[in-house]
Amino acid sequence: MHCNEVLGCRTSSSPGEQDGGANLGDEGNILLRVVQLLSRNDLPFGEKLQQGLLILLQRMGAERGSIMLLTDDQTRLEVMASSKPSLVGLVQDIREDTVSGHVLATGEPLLIRDILGDERFKPRGVSYKTTSLISVPLRSAQGGHVLGVVNVSDRQDGISFDSDDANLLQTYAGWISPLLENCRLFEQVRQEKDRYKVLARELEHKRNELLVSTMERADLVQMVVHDFKSPLSAIIATYDLLLYMGVNAKQRRIIANGLEGAKNLRKMINDFLETARVQELQSDVFRLAPVDISLVIQQEVERIQIVLKQRNLILQVSTGSNVLVSGDSSLLAHLFQNLLSNAVKYTPAGGQIRVQLVRGKGHRGTDRQGSYVKFWVEDSGMGVPDVSKHHVFERFARASQAVDQGIQGAGVGLYMCRKIVRLLGGSIWVEDSELGGAKFCVELPAIAGCEND
């Protein structure tokens, strides 16, 4: 008489629950081998399951077997290990009219001594060769929910499986379930780590491509713009030569207009190239050193004297001497040159410009070191409206009244000033001047021991 059984003696076993069933003293080495195998980190998850299953099948004298685990979405079973390697990776829907689906749904182990006598699982095809089988659930150590099933079928000696065989498989399942869960989590973490590594490499590759493309494009633009300077210088020189050779009043007016336009274009080119150079600067590209900013200001004031006389502008300068800041002399020169040129541009003929350098506290409480040098350039020009004070340092920004009055400019000078000041660890802002125009103020870290005016 054939017997199909649902085993009720236990649903899982742990290492401390080894009473009853097969003689576990004889099986200790087999189980230990499997546990040690599953604990290894140098083998892929699937390989560990495959080797562990083969050890178990050899001990039980079974011809066939498999380990099936729930997919991540908990809707199907995937063959993770099998005595028939071609089945590994096969995914099937969970159906209670299959042995694995039934055990998964009920959570109970199943021993079938003769499958031909069981109407629920009777073979549906002539090629089905299994006669006796055991299916046991694999339970999570956290919460006890079913992770999958382990199946063995058909003893090599032709005898049906018995309760001792079923208890041995249950013990095996109890030992390996926590290890399987940990291994699977470890494998998922490893896969995620590998995926992020690949993603990081792809992002780095794209970033490098974008960086190279941007640099190449910027270099090309700078090269082309720089090449404009040579023919433009020839045009300016030709205009100067024509004026020197002597022309009539009408010709002089035409040549003067052309010369002014060429010089404005040259200034725009120089501003563009200087902006590109400043944009490329980082605080770790140049080395800060003590710089006498009072000397830098005096030198730039000397260079602009001719323009001041031509415009009949009054310039008052108060700087003291030996006022040291931590900075870069070329950047500081360009900073002050832009501020002074800006004041000259926006101050009408006969107007006033004032430059002053003092020691002072940090602007609006931003002084972190307690030793700052403050200088400003103010004028009697049109000033900067309140609505534009926060935007005037942005790239290509220009005050509306300057545009309305036709004052030439590219809107990059003050942008470069802010860039330089930030690189030097200072601050820059604009406020209204007592002279009626704008007052551009700069604070930079001072070096102890400089003169106090």
Automatic annotation (TrEMBL):
Catalyzed reactions per annotation: ATP + protein L-histidine = ADP + protein N-phospho-L-histidine
EC number(s) stated in the UniProt entry for this protein: 2.7.13.3
Residue stretches in coiled coil: none
Key words, A-Z: Kinase, Phosphoprotein, Transferase, Two-component regulatory system
One matching Pfam family: GAF
Domain of life: Bacteria
SUPFAM superfamilies in the cross-refs: ATPase domain of HSP90 chaperone/DNA topoisomerase II/histidine kinase, GAF domain-like, Homodimeric domain of signal transducing histidine kinase
Protein name as it appears in the record: histidine kinase
Species of provenance: Desulfoplanes formicivorans
